[in-house]
Structures
1.
Amino acid sequence: MNIDMPGVPPLEWVNSEGTVEKPADGVLRITAAAGADWSNDAFGGAQQHAATLLGFVPPGDFSLSAHAVVVGERSTFDAAVLAIWGDRDHWAKLCFEYSPQGEAMVVSVVTNEYSDDCNSTLVVEGAVHLRITRSGAGWAFHSSADGRTWVFVRVFRLAYAGPASVGFLAQAPLGERCIAEFHNITYSTAIPADFRDGS
């Protein structure tokens, strides 16, 4: 089943079908069930891929951004996420996540067999803008408080040659559920010329 959003290629579920609503024009709401997450434990623990991505396969260079919100009370590690999925060993996610210390923050995870997890900016407001960009074989993650000035999170490659899906995800590793909303969704084939100058 395809989900249509204005200005974005048709969206479909990757891994399995999840729960999605469109509560208002241009707004996407995804609900994660208890235990839904992606993690390839760097210390060798069991992989977790219970979360599911609502996304599309971009044909070339692009940027995808959204204003990410988690609705309701939060639990540890819950998140509204922009993500990339190649296969179970090659994926990445940019999260508006709730830390064990009770702080909302931008967190990124890049997985080439094992997950490289990195905490970034603390978020003092109730939402944050997230952006994924692909340029050639490389990827970039950014966040923004206002959707205009972008803070560099990381650049990376995935050791994966096949087509990768990009899109939206909610996770609730320890909570009963997580409701993630994505507003102001913007897809463009124009990409920043400089990933570190705020553009």
2.
Amino acid sequence: MVIIKATTINKYFTVPTKFHVLKDVSVEVDEGEFISIVGKSGCGKSTLLYILSTMDTDFTGDFQIAGESLIGKSQKYLAHLRNKSIGFVFQFHYLLPEFTALENVMVPALKLNEQSYEVIKKSALDKLELLGIPELANKQANKLSGGQQQRVAIARSLINNPMIIIGDEPTGNLDSENAQIVIQLFKSLTKEQKQTIIIVTHDLDIPKITDRTIEMSDGRII
């Protein structure tokens, strides 16, 4: 099943001068695929990622998630879709430092407000267990190591059982050992949870592990 379908995407930046950053880009991603997007800085890979994540809507072309075109949808609708169906893992973890690991994982589900507090708490504990860090549940985020913080961030991205996980340089701040742990976690999620994962990376080892690599150059997929 095709989860993401982008067709003839064109994107321009207009400041300081007009620049054609994405040029007739088309891509399809299937359910359960682990995709890496690579290319030199400025090639358009992060711009494409933000379009695929629905955070950038200023482009031409068609974009669908699970067969639904999102062209013309309101920002409120897209924000709800992101919270429910897309998990995000960034280079920086963006955890709330004064919250515990458990509380940080719970935040997106509490915001979605579709389940009781107790159900959300149990689900968050399950996600921490899945990531191999249940013992960190009651530890404050600012007391965790970098690798632990990133695993908490991944657990948080999973709390609403999203169809898609988007990663923007998710191993960029990690040492090689923790980077490998994170990538293997992503790999297991696609196999065991059927989650679709798309990450932008400069790490040359990651494309060796992903199911497919999309290479970009000068605003095009090559």
3.
Amino acid sequence: MESDFRQSPLALAVLSLLHAAPLHPYAMQRLLKLWGKDAVINVGQRANLYKTIRRLDEAGLIAVRQTERDQQYPERTVYELTEAGRRACRDWLTDMLARPRNEFPQFPAALSVIMLLSPDEAATVLAERAAALRGHLAAAEAMLAGHPELPRVVLMDDDYLRAMLSAELAWVEGVVADLRGGWSWSREELEAVSARLSPGSDPLSPPHR
């Protein structure tokens, strides 16, 4: 049954947490946020976490260890890792590290239709994004600098995010500079391209005028 489970970052996070010790869902969510892993794993919605845990349990990758009862808290189910879950965790980890995947983020999708804006509008919104990226990059650098006692291996995700933020910022700033330096497009130009590439037309023919 484990082979039918579709791997995900959240499922991997649950299995990795249970490597250390049995935990209940609330503790899993709290630890992921405490360690800053919510920057790379979507743990904001507890319902998604519970759904993932239920599916992992049904797949035999985790199992109920015990149920905790405390007067101050609702009843909590503690889960532990199974041998199948231990194998799956390692398999998913190596697969995610080794094989790039197209994860369909929002920004490239928006860039694919940026021509719906005027060049001036595009420059304005991309400059706004660049400002936000500078803030995120400064926060990432401060976080890394604030933990010199931690070994590099436990900060790999933060180091990667910093590198990606830096690269995206440089690219966005370059596009803004091009737009403000004269790069432009027009409705007529885009309509000509659309006509040339429409079904039944010769894609190698010159644009219609």
4.
Amino acid sequence: MTQTLALAADHGGFELKRELLSWLQGKGYTVQDLGAHDLDPDDDFPDFSYAVAQRVASGQAWRGVIVCGSGVGACVTANKVPGVRASVCHDIYSARQGVEHDDMNILCLGARIIDPKLARELLSAFLKAEFLKKERYQRRLTKLLSIENSFINLDTTTIPPNQ
């Protein structure tokens, strides 16, 4: 397989990430393991999420997988990076459909929500799925990218900080 995956987890997803890394490599995927490499209960999910998002957005990885406690923080962080379409998925339909309809390129998993068996099933669905280039899905993706692009060159000095 020529598809390279970026994979990372914070302390909340550390053990599940280790299991998934081994499983993915056994399936023939090239995996960029972006950490955590040691269990550190004080590490922060944005560091690992951002690393995966950068790899995917830059094209250095085909797709990405981020594991944290719930998957939510990883997803929120990853979606801050232009070019990333990340989602938390804890059911097989969403893991597949997110790619087919929305061109999702990062799967976020909650290690405190799902077990390793379901995580492997979700990953399998995510990795096997392909974006369906039907007119309606392409139209929606184009609108989504237009929204994203409208913020890329935004002058943030005119936006008041959160109170």
